Amino acid sequence: MEDVDVPIPRLLDLRQLLARKSHFLLGPRQTGKTFLIRQGLPTVRRYDLLDHAVFLDLSRDPGRLGQEIPRNERLVVIDEVQRLPSLLNEVHRLIEERRIRFLLTGSSARRLRGGGVNLLGGRARVRHLHPLSARELGARFQLERAIDRGLLPSIYLSDDPRADLVAYAGTYLQQEIVAEGATRNVPAFSRFLRVAALCNGTIVNFTKVASDAQVARTTVHEYFEILKETLILHELPAYRTAARRKPIASSKYYFFDTGVLTALQGRDRRAVGTSEWGEGFETWLLHELRCWRDYHSGATLSFWRSTSGFGVDVLIDDHTAIEIKASATVGPADLKGLRALSEEMRLRHRIVVCRERGARRVDDIDILPWSDFLDALWADQFR
Question: Among 122, 167, 308, 377, which is 20 to 30 Å from 336 by CA?
Fold first, then answer.
């Protein structure tokens, strides 16, 4: 196994985040929240609610938190805060009365949305930590490896990624679904999870998913919400403003990591050049765009598809349209969606992201290798 303790610099600077305000730092398990805290806040007092003794002490007496924190301390970390949402009452008091700034981490927003986050109403911002990005890995990034294994740090660097990914899927069911009581019917949710994974990157037909998973259609909607709230699934909304062609209004859904997605689909790996690899490439690029949005730009991401069949994979705000192609050669048919969208709205940038060897331009459409696109994205060239 590669040395997973070799530091991989992350793009989030925790001290900078906490300079003025408390923050919730949310991200799926094993995205590196604890490692980031040890790197960025090594001397800050930390309460880990996965520690049974810590959990019991604070659940019996949340006021103990304020009693234990010295009067001169101004930064405190609470890990896995969703395990004890009632503790946020005490956090609220300490923010107000003692001006302590908290970093509150969690792998699920589900229980927090039951009142905790709203309880702090404006006193803490929410940031998300994603799996590793190509920018964070730098020279250690390998595209085929990222699509095959995903970008969870321990799995990207693992000597047995398949076993680790299967274990991750099992841990998710045990700790996020069973332990948190998200649903009582775990076998049904497990069937649904496989079917939902096979719908990755598509406009979901909820009736068909219900039939394939053998659950009620209303249950499917509830299960999709569980996936979103446990941060396993991301919704990409449809861009609904159109001048001529009627757009489709339903969202698309992408899993947060290509490796976890592959395991949930029951696949061993994705062979380059197959449609499955193309799906992985698109899912990975959406991940990179989410990292850029959440760490850097704050832009809005959406997709566009008309009822007549034209489509574009991603829109950045209302000025940049991106088509994602995993192929090494882009042809005229790959440009149709971008050209159709140009008839609907003014665009500053039209881009095809692909695996071609070099950048080129066809009319006013930029065809960019994925590495060139990411460099330009982070350099703020698409505004």
Answer: 377
Domain boundary among 100, 129, 158: 129
Alpha helices in the chain (DSSP H): 14-17, 33-40, 52-60, 64-68, 87-98, 116-119, 134-137, 143-149, 153-156, 161-171, 186-198, 206-213, 217-229, 258-264, 275-292, 336-342, 370-378
State residue 116's pLDDT score. 55
For the stretch 153-199, pLDDT in tens is 999 999 999 999 999 988 887 777 776 666 778 888 999 999 999 99
Taking 3-state DSSP, the helix, strand and coil percentages for the chain, each rounded to the nearest 5, stand at: 45, 15, 40
177 shares a domain with 236: yes
Amino acid type, 54: V
What is the separation of C-alpha 113 from the centre of its chain, rounded to a whole number of angstroms? Answer: 18
The answer to whether residues 111 and 181 belong to one domain is no
318-359 residue pLDDT tens:
999 999 999 999 999 999 999 999 988 899 999 999 999 999
pTM: 0.93
* Domain contains 275: yes
Instruction: Please give the residue range of the domain that contains residue 166.
Output: 139-378
- Strand pairing class (365-369; 360-362): antiparallel
